[in-house]
Structure to design on (223 residues):
């Protein structure tokens, strides 16, 4: 099948080896092809605008602006390209945020090698792809219990605050977080203050302990 008649896919993924493997897998399909690749949100947005693909696959964790922020930018600009979010996070919290932001599917990197083509074809067919283990909680959160002030503190964090909280839990310094997210130290301090307020924490020590415990619990569940 000529390349131009295939479903065109844009990949936005900042890990070159994983992006190469995924592109190879997609290009092996007789009915789809990768038309552009990007390693950050800005280049991804430009590629999607330029190529107008059938599908965009976006990593939720990108350096600088996150995949979630890219997705929100696409939807804010009225770009309706179907989006499959790719993530290292095997938990419903991130899947829910992706769907709320306008994603058409969410797949973890752990399951991608076995299920990514199923996910791609499902999204291209106009359906939502989601691991069944996430479904019950997400349906409850989105349809039954919309996010409000009674939600758990972790659910009240904005996407950027959640990214900062996770990096704190990984032991990153304020300066390191600023470099990773490409914002100033002062901005990171503002995020830290907001996170402490939402969790009801009094000082940096409590923040570090809470974030570290959360990261360790997630790794234990994933492992």
């Amino acid at each position: 099948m000529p390349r131009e008649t295939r479903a065109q896919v844009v990949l936005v993924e900042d890990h070159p080896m994983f992006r190469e493997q995924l592109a190879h897998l997609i290009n092996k399909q007789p009915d789809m092809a990768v038309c552009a690749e990007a390693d950050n949100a800005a280049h991804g947005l430009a590629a999607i605008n330029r190529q107008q693909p059938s599908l965009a696959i976006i990593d939720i964790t990108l350096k600088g602006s996150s995949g979630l922020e890219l997705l929100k930018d696409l939807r804010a600009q009225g770009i309706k390209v179907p989006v499959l979010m790719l993530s290292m996070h095997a938990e419903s919290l991130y899947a829910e945020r992706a769907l709320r932001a306008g994603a058409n599917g969410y797949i973890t990197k752990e399951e991608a090698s076995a299920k990514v083509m199923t996910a791609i074809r499902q999204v291209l067919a106009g359906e939502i792809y989601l691991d069944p283990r996430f479904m019950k909680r997400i349906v409850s959160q989105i349809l039954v219990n919309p996010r409000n002030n009674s939600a758990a503190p972790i659910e009240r964090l904005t996407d950027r605050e959640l990214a900062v909280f996770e990096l704190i839990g990984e032991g990153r310094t304020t300066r390191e977080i600023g470099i990773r997210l490409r914002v100033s130290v002062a901005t990171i301090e503002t995020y830290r203050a907001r996170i402490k307020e939402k969790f009801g924490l009094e000082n940096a020590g409590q923040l570090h302990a809470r974030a570290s415990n959360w990261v360790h619990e997630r790794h234990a569940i994933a492992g």
